[in-house]
Design a protein that fits this description.
The protein is mostly helical. The protein has helices spanning 2-43, 49-104, 126-143, 147-160, 167-180, 184-197, 204-217, 221-234, 239-251. The chain has one domain (2-251): Alpha Horseshoe (Serine Threonine Protein Phosphatase 5, Tetratricopeptide repeat), CATH 1.25.40.10. It is 79% helix and 0% strand. The N and C termini lie far apart (65 Å).
Length: 252
């Protein structure tokens, strides 16, 4: 119990700081989304649709970079929560074992204390640390606009950690990096791979929106309308669906 009492303040500080950073990034992303709304409204009143959409996508890339950082910090929060639950479960088990031993031997005995609190460290296990570091390294390259390096980094991450909770996100950034390099066909293929491989992922709406964006860039407007309509129908209420509705209005 002493180990738990000592661990809680450090735990609370780490979680509070990460929560604050995530909230700040979400607020910044929301501000950029508002600017996107204004630009996309202008698209509806301008004949030069593709030119304005390109301007929108440039700003959207900045939002994407901020959201990428938010994803990493949210993942770190999830990892810390899991470690906390594991810690509590371990302590409960130890206490139960001590209680059973006390009942079996009612004579006064010297109870051996639990293992050193250093073994209950909140530090994520090495595998989790390596996984997060690999993802952050690739994301850093993306934020620095090193899209070729980001593609290589995220592909390596997917190969090494195919079952990671961050795998859908990594696949998304591969596709988005190809879009940033104006390789629209390859970008579309990678986003479609995300939709097929991770159908339950929250990244699917964003992938569909990027697929439509690539289709517009390839002048496949009929295909883009179909993709946007699918997005609105299947994922109502998501930010991506809201953007899709505005794109559909602009394409009419």
């Amino acid at each position: 119990m002493l180990a738990l009492a000592l661990a809680q303040p450090a735990w609370a500080a780490d979680t509070a700081e990460l929560s604050r950073q995530v909230q700040a990034l979400q607020q910044l992303a929301g501000s950029l989304d508002a600017r996107l709304d204004k630009l996309e409204s202008a698209v509806q009143q301008n004949q030069n649709l593709l030119g304005l959409l390109q301007e929108v996508e440039t700003l959207k890339a900045e939002v994407a970079k901020m959201r990428g950082l938010t994803e990493v910090q949210a993942h770190q929060l999830d990892t810390l929560d899991k470690r906390q639950n594991d810690l509590y479960a371990d302590l409960d088990q130890r206490l139960n074992e001590l209680a059973k031993a006390a009942k079996a031997a009612p004579v006064a005995i010297a109870v051996t204390p639990p293992e050193s609190s250093t073994q209950l460290s909140l530090t994520p296990p090495p595998d989790t640390q390596a996984e997060t570091a690999a993802y952050e390294a690739a994301l850093k390259l993306f934020r620095e606009s090193n899209y070729t390096g980001a593609i290589a980094g995220f592909k390596a991450f997917l190969k090494t950690y195919p079952d990671s909770a961050l795998a859908p996100n990594a696949q998304y950034w591969v596709g988005y990096s190809y879009y940033a390099l104006k390789d629209y066909k390859t970008a579309q293929a990678h986003q479609q791979k995300l939709v097929v491989a991770y159908p339950a992922s929250p990244k699917v709406p964003d992938a569909l929106l990027n697929i439509a964006t690539n289709q517009i860039a390839l002048n496949k407007l009929a295909d883009a309308r179909k993709t946007l309509e699918e997005l609105v129908a299947k994922y109502p209420g998501t930010p991506a669906a809201a953007q899709a509705s505005k794109r559909l209005a602009a394409l009419k």
